[in-house]
Fold these 3 entries.
Entry 1:
Amino acid sequence: MELHSAGENALILYLGRETSPEVAARVHAASAAIEAALGDDLVDLVPSYASILVIYDALRTDHLDVGHRLRAALSDLAENASLEGRSVILPVYYSPETGADLEALAARAGLSVDDVISIHSGTEYRVYAIGFAPGFAYLGQVDERIAAPRLATPRLKVPRGAVAIADRQTAVYPAVSPGGWNLIGRCPTRMFDPLATPPMPVAVGDRVRFEPVSRERFLALGGEVT
């Protein structure tokens, strides 16, 4: 564990040097411990692949006090923390209609479209980080057989719910936005709703599986084909 200053009211905690399920589990476990330890003194907590940014209320406490409290809270955290997070299933309508790059990705990989769908939906992914946009969860690791580089020219408009692959990561676009990932399907689940509690269906450390659904089921769940 390494703890460093990250501003006048922030500290950053490093829990590993690589992306792995074990490090992600430590980040998840440490986040819960930090929230409990700092309580109302905590302004925000930003977990990432192997680190956590801790932003605190400088009117109530300071670096020294927060550092002591963090070390005390994490002293009992095992190096191989096994807190698994929740298991989340996200429905996906995989098709060329909703995944503009599905057929090209399959051809490049020397696989059938059905093979790509089976491999993508048959893998359990860890939520490593949330960023780029609210609700954009970076999930890994994608099976090497269907890993694909980002597009040379990003799209100006990717629809909400687009399920995509970039290198060995996969994600669901939470809102309409530009994007350069390979689109393979669409998910009807809202990945960010500021009026919901919680506002996102996944958190760092959770485990995600994608469940293939028919076009009819996708539409019945609130999905949109545009």
Entry 2:
Amino acid sequence: MIRRNTLVRLLERRFTAKVPLKKAWAHLERIEQWPSWARHIRRIDLRPSGPLGIHSEGAIQLTNGIRSTFRMEELNVGSNWKWVGPFLWITVHYDHRFKRTGPEESEISFVLDGEGFGAGVFGRLFAAIYARNLDRAIPNLIKELEDE
């Protein structure tokens, strides 16, 4: 019998910014500039450089020295992109969702799902740490979006 891994929802953060959806997408797809608002990130290298594409992949280095890689798993321009990467024994799926809530307002969601050995345990530990970082970063992102 083949047993397939099931996804475990680890984290979801949803927030609103007073900017048109197109502007929110354009700002966030500049992945290499994320350290300006996500201060827990030291550096992100995206290949190929430039706008996100179905073949985008990269490496992220956090300020605590942890490094990870990611590759594009799903891309629906203007709606969402999902990348996937390893963390210990689990595979983490990072979904970045965008929704127009008004002419000058957008809802952005960051959703993390995990799968693999220990996703319920190690994934939740990872999510707890990641949640603290996101909770500090999201206000910076909203300010940056709205001041741009």
Entry 3:
Amino acid sequence: MKNASAQLRYLHMTPRKVRAVAGLIRGRMVNDAEAELLLHRRRAAVPLLKLLRSAVANAKQKKMDNTRLIVKEIRVDQGPMLKRHLPRARGMASPIQKKMSNIMMVLVEDERAKTPKFTFIPAPKKKKAPVASRTKKTQDKQKEGGIDEMPMQKGSRRQNGFWKKMFQRKSV
């Protein structure tokens, strides 16, 4: 049984908060785990998703089949702690512990794994226009008389008089 692993160290998040999200993907297929993390609202989902993708990339290097990968183990341990103090009344100070997490993830190729319910297709990357052409467009707009003389589109805020209402002076 082949396995691939990845680890994330010194994540500035408490282990308790990370464990809550890590428990959701333990024992799941990689596609399901990735979908779960993409849609999860908690802040710990972002670094866990990045770690999962790193483990999948490590599995690809070992020539493992992505459709049969399962998250076998995910362990969240306490990392080092930054100790700070908060000043209080009467010259006292209360301690603050800024905790960190170390995360270890192990993926396993399972022969008995079912075919995935769906295939994950990442969104295409947006292409930016070259910087020179963008500056040229803005220069052309300035020569024509600025942004105010641009043609209005149907349903735009300009056409509806939004800015006139917004900055209208009230006289008493």
